[in-house]
Amino acid sequence: MSVYHVLKVKRCLPEGCFYFKWHCRLLDKGTRCVKGYGHPGKNCNSCRYYFEDKLHKIPEIRLEPRAYREFQLELEEFEDWLSDNLGRRLAIQGRVNFSGPRLVKKIYPRHEKLYLRGYLANFSGCFLGRARLDDFVYLRLSPGAQERVRLAKGDELEFEAELRLDEGRLVLEHPRRFDFSRRGPEPFDPRRAEALVDLHSAAALDVQYERCINCERGRLVDVVERGIDSDRFLHRELYCLEGVTTPADCCYGALKKIAVED
Ligand code: SF4
Ligand code: SF4
After folding, report:
1. pLDDT tens sequence across 1-17
2. Local structure of 61: helix, strand or coil
3. Which of 4, 21, 142, 149 could form a disulfide with 53 if both were Cys (CB 3.0 to 4.6 A apart)?
4. What is the Cα–Cα distance from 29 to 193, expressed in whole angstroms?
5. Cα separation of 5 and 12, whole Å?
6. CA 241 to ligand 1 centroid distance, Å
7. What pLDDT is stored for residue 191 in this prediction?
8. How far apart are the C-alpha atoms of 187 and 100, rounded to whole Å?
9. CB burial class (10 A; 0-12, 13-18, 19+) of residue 178?
10. Which residues pair with 91 in a beta bridge?
11. How far apart are CA 19 and CA 12, in angstroms?
12. Long-range pairs of 67-70 with CB within 8 A, sequence gap ≥ 24
């Protein structure tokens, strides 16, 4: 869970929060559920094998008091800067860290579905106007825009875009005036078909593994609930575009290294 989530979304500092963990006496012992469920859920309330634990979580500040005060001051400065710049068109300068399809998962009453919503690139540090930001900043691109500019990992460029805040992410939208000073070593393949293959092979991962977050085939997907008038953001889930479900056994990085050395 991110600092943003703890401080700004859940606001669980200092009291913390609690939640209920569902258990089934039968499934815990490796016995089958009387109704055929694979795990306890909201339909189990009236079942005699169901019980729940109330778990209280309290976040802890690991920083020294002085370092925490410095962090708070830095955060206030950042929020001032943000309120001055949100919604404005800014000149951006940076190096592309990742570029690939942008996926969104929609939850419907009876099913869920992954959609391709154009492309997403990110910068692990960049200049937004005159401010240098050493954090991830995301750029949303329509399929048409990506086919024109073919943004790829390693590209160094300047462009203009509008700054938005999306569930804790700094997002750049409606980019234009691209000016590349250097192109990355691997050009982006603009065939949308490749992105669609990604869409169908993508597999959800149960935990946000560090190696997958840093992998070019790992993708944080926005999960939204379909409402009558609009969609409601729920959370982000980590997906592997290679379809690997057990990252501990994954050899994608090693195979790619061998292919590059050949
Ligand atoms: S209904 Fe729920 S609590 Fe009851 S046996 Fe099935 S999984 Fe367990
Ligand atoms: S499972 Fe392997 S290929 Fe997939 S995101 Fe993780 S490290 Fe990358």
Report:
1. 667 777 877 788 888 88
2. coil
3. 21
4. 46
5. 9
6. 33
7. 64
8. 12
9. middle
10. 160
11. 12
12. none
Q: Find out whether the peptide bond into 14 is cis, omega within 30 degrees of 0.
A: yes
Question: Nearest Cα to 92, choosing from 202, 170, 40, 3?
Answer: 170
Decide if pLDDT at 190 tops 60: yes
Distance CA 178, CA 188 (A): 16
pLDDT given for residue 17 in this prediction: 81
Residues 6+ apart with CB under 8 A from 192: 143, 147
Nearest to residue 23, comparing CAs of 55, 50, 43, 62? 50
pLDDT value of position 59? 84
Atom of ligand 2 nearest to the CA of 238: 5
Nearest to 184 by CA among 210, 216, 220, 137: 216
| Residue pLDDT, tens place only, 43-55 | 898 999 999 999 8
Mutate-to-test residue for ligand 1 from 20, 25, 44, highest number of ligand atoms within 8 A of CB: 44
HSE-CB at 161 with a 13 A cutoff on CA atoms is 25
Whole-angstrom Cα Rg for the chain: 22
Closest-approaching ligand to the CA atom of 41? 1
Closest Cα partner for 236 from 96, 127, 136, 125? 136
Ligand 1 pocket residue status of 51, Cβ below 6 Å:
no
Residue 219 CA to ligand 2 center (angstroms) comes to 9
Q: Give the whole-angstrom CA distance, residue 152 versus residue 32.
A: 49
| Comparison of pLDDT for 232 and 89, the residue scoring more | 89
User: Within 13 A of 192's CA, how many CA atoms are on the CB side?
Assistant: 12
Residue 207 near residue 110 (C-beta atoms within 8 A): no
